Amino acid sequence: MKKSNLEKFYNEKITNNLFGELKVSNKMEVPKLNKIVLNMGLGDAKDNKNSLQQALEELSLITGQKPIIRKSKKAISNFKIRENDPVGISVTLRRKKMYEFLERFIAIVSPRIRDFRGFSQKGFDGMGNYNFGLNEQVVFPEINYDKVNAIRGLNLTFVTSTQDDASAFKLLKAFGFPFREPTNNQD
Questions:
Q1: pLDDT in tens, 99-133
Q2: Whole-angstrom Cα distance, residue 50 to residue 24?
Q3: Is 37 exposed, middle or buried (0-12, 13-18, 19+ CB in 10 A)?
Q4: N vs C: which end of the chain shows fewer Cβ within 10 Å?
Q5: What sign does the dihedral 168-173-179-183 (CA atoms) show?
Q6: From residue 75, how far is each of 52, 84, 89, 171 by CA, in Å?
């Protein structure tokens, strides 16, 4: 199986650089990217089946993989949700598809985000994972803007093998992930 350019770069360059920089005792302790999870919440999915179908098609175009429909676990009367109503969709990318998606995301999608100055460094969860949201799915080149019936946001989670945020930050930075430089008044 042919490896993507980013996976080769990780195996040949990033592991050696992080091995020295993080001062770990074994190469197997060098942090790695385990998976990327994309979630799209759909508040109108129970009423509008067309919206659910369109979101499924868009997320499968973006990732190259069929999304899973997420259903509510219990009924919430204030939100008019019954148990097992569809509330969102998600995709988990691993191995080759994960590296290909990350490469496209860094090189093509990030520059297309409106008013983009980099991602915040506050998105780490304390366990070495990085989360952030996108306001619109049309920043992905796979989406045809003329066929979009509604602008939907999505959440991306980058899950790493490390348990601390500093190592995860260094790993994502080594991949070329566009982080915003912290300033005194915002990050």
A1: 888 888 887 777 777 777 777 778 787 787 888 88
A2: 51
A3: middle
A4: N
A5: positive
A6: 19, 8, 18, 40
